[in-house]
Amino acid sequence: GNSVTQMEGPVTLSEEAFLTINCTYTATGYPSLFWYVQYPGEGLQLLLKATKADDKGSNKGFEATYRKETTSFHLEKGSVQVSDSAVYFCALSETGANSKLTFGKGITLSVRP
Amino acid sequence: DAGVIQSPRHEVTEMGQEVTLRCKPISGHNSLFWYRQTMMRGLELLIYFNNNVPIDDSGMPEDRFSAKMPNASFSTLKIQPSEPRDSAVYFCASSLSSGYSPLHFGNGTRLTVT
């Protein structure tokens, strides 16, 4: 079956530090990959996505590249801000109708001023 | 666009009582998902619907849980009887039924069963 593995957290960084959050996946087909972010007291919202190998998703300074050879989709940001403090979830979806998302466990990022 | 609307935002109830959580998906979305989030287990998919029909309910923990979608604009998740271990945040999400279509989540219902 499908699964998503995220690095253990929490992660605490100083403002303007470089961020990497690791994500690897197992899937039987050719999934689409996503990063979702959850701010305190809110539901998850889509941060970025990639639908095929070597695609790079980007949004709000965050980037992730779909690496089929390493089955990875690591999230990076060159300079984090306090407002980036949130929980980050990696997820995959098999393509096609009635597909559903498989989420990783999520990792909490805290950015201090 | 109003987004996915869930009610109530918070629910506190006593063990044994019936609990009903409500969700209004985004207009035009034809897939609806119920998730449960806890510190211990993370985010778990309970059930999802496509065009109001339940497609996969394998995540529903036990018979105490039931979900309905009587029409395209409304869904309920019911727990009867509730137990303390059901305490969690329950999220509803909707999307177009496409592998590339992102999920749009509501703000969740925080359920506490005492």
Q: What does this molecule look like?
A:
The complex is a heterodimer of chains A (113) and B (114). Chain A is 0% helix and 50% strand. Chain A contains no helices and 12 strands. In chain A, the strands form 3 sheets. In chain A, strands 2, 5, 6, 10, 11 and 12 form a 6-stranded mixed beta sheet that branches. Chain A has a 4-stranded antiparallel beta sheet with strand order 3-9-8-7, with no helix packed on it. A two-stranded antiparallel ribbon of chain A has the order 1-4. In chain A, a hairpin with a 5-residue loop joins strand 5 (32-38) and strand 6 (44-50). Chain B has 114 residues and is an all-beta fold. Chain B has no helices and 11 strands. Chain B has strands at 5-7, 10-13, 19-24, 31-38, 42-50, 53-56, 65-71, 74-79, 88-95, 104-105, 109-113. The radius of gyration of chain B is 13 Å and the shape is globular. The chains are: A mainly beta (113), B mainly beta (114). The A-B interface holds A 32, 34, 36, 41-46, 49, 51, 89, 93-101, 103-106 and B 4, 31, 33, 42-43, 45, 48, 50, 55-56, 91, 93, 97-100, 102-108.
Summarize the structure.
The complex is a heterodimer of chains A (113) and B (114). Chain A has 113 residues and is mostly beta strands. Chain A has no helices and twelve strands.
List keywords for this structure.
heterodimer, A: mainly beta, 6-stranded mixed sheet, 4-stranded antiparallel sheet, 12 strands, B: 114 residues, mainly beta, 7-stranded mixed sheet, 11 strands, 0% helix
Distance between the termini of chain A: 41 Å
- Tell me the major beta sheet of chain A: 6 strands, mixed
Radius of gyration of chain A: 14 Å
Flag low-confidence runs of chain A: none
**Structural class by SSE content of chain B:** mainly beta
Task: Profile the largest sheet of chain B.
Answer: 7 strands, mixed
- Termini separation of chain B (Å)? 36 Å
Q: Tell me the helix content of chain A.
A: under 10%
Estimated share of beta-strand residues of chain A: over 45%
Mean pLDDT of chain A: 92
Task: Tally the beta strands of chain B.
Answer: 11
From the spread of the alpha carbons, the general shape of chain A counts as globular
